[in-house]
Structure formats: structure tokens, C-alpha cells
Amino acid sequence: MFILKRQQVEISSIQHPKHDRQIPILTYQGQRFRLIKAFGASQGEEAKAFWRDLTDNRGKACVLLEEPERYSIWGKIRLESQANEATTSTKITVLTQACLLLLQTVFIDLEEFLGARQAGLFQKDLLEVFRQGHFPQADSPKAVNHLLTINPLTSLQVPLWEEHHLITLLQELHRLGKEYFGNTHFAEGVRGTLQDMPDAEQTQFLDWLKQSLVGKLWG
To answer: Is 70 within 8 Å of 38 (Cβ atoms)?
Structure first.
């Protein structure tokens, strides 16, 4: 579309509908754009090549903003894409809540049947899983303890994980549970674990679980 200068546009930010962070927004002639990628001041040619690829080859409605300290690419925001993003964000929140309930149930059973020492070792193993998988908001013993003790259905501090994080968590949780308990009985009766969730959200999670790579592990 356009190559613009800073004085031609207005840059502001809006609150993400679900997460505690701000989204940068560029406004030009009544149109709104969202930041796609930023480049350093010495990367002008790379930025222009990326912008041309998006506009000419992929048909994206984008602007390239030239500033003294950087170049940045912004994509036009459409109403339907905003609605889709909000729906996706809501879905991920529900899936994360359900996964945390499963994690907490396994941990509580482990502590009850195997004792505090084994529960402590499990927390260390879990922290390693989070670190290896680059899980946001889960890179310290304090963070792990928080995830094991919060009520994920009411807390405003549910972590900002993506679907691949949830798949990894359920895979590794099943592996660890089998190692500690010596069997896979802990993975049975998932619906009972989710009984405090609204029926619609339970169904949403269980449908997702059946279609996922880990559906066969959790029956």
C-alpha cells in the first residue's frame, strides 16, 4: 500500500481483550493497522523487501513506516479478524483452565498417595518441562507453585499459553504421572476432574482433546 513517515500517522495502543498487555495501533486516514514486524535503522532494504512480499505476493494490506530509529510493517485491521482473534483468545483461555485443573488434580493425588517428598520432586520435574518448552510465566519454582495452587476458573492470572504449550503439558504430565504412579489410572475420568467448569466449556475442551495429539492418553 504505502510507505509513510512518522508525521503522517498517529500511533496509539489498545488493551488486548483477554490478556494484560497493550497492542500498538497505527492510524492513517481513518484506517487502523496493527504492528506485524519491526526492523532496525540499518535494515531498510530488508524491511522494504518484506513489505513488498506481503503486499505484492501475498495480497496483504500493509504499510511501511519509516522512522529515524527503525522501520516497521503494519497490517490493516479488519472487523472480522478482530472478532476471530477474540474468539480464539477465549478458546485458549478455556483450554488452559482445563489443563491446569488436570495438572492440579494429578499433583494433589500424588501428594496424598506418595507424600510430600515425591510431590516436591514432581514440582522440580514440572519446572524443567516448563523451561524446556519455553512456557511463559512458568520459569521459576514460585511460578510453578502458583500454577498448582490458583483456582484457574476464577483467577485473572491464567498464563498466556498457546495451543502447542498445552499439548506439551498434557504429553509431559502423562509421562511424569506414569513414572510416579507406575500406571495410567490418573489419566482416566477427565470429565470428573472438570466438573466445576460450565458444561459448554467442558464439552469444548473434551472435543478439542479428542482431536488433539494427546487425546488417546487422556480417557
So the answer is: yes
pLDDT tens profile 88-111? 456 888 999 999 999 999 999 999
For residue 36 the three cell numbers come to: 506485524
Q: Give the chain's mean pLDDT.
A: 86
Q: Are residues 92 and 186 in the same domain?
A: yes
**And the C-alpha cell for 26?**
497505527
Stretch among 81-85, 156-160, 167-171 having the lowest mean pLDDT? 81-85
State the CB neighbour count (10 A cutoff) for residue 141. 12
**Which residues, other chains included, contact 173 with Cβ-Cβ below 8 Å and sequence gap of 6+?**
102, 103, 106
On whether both 99 and 45 belong to a single domain, the answer is: no
For residue 136, give its domain range.
Answer: 87-211
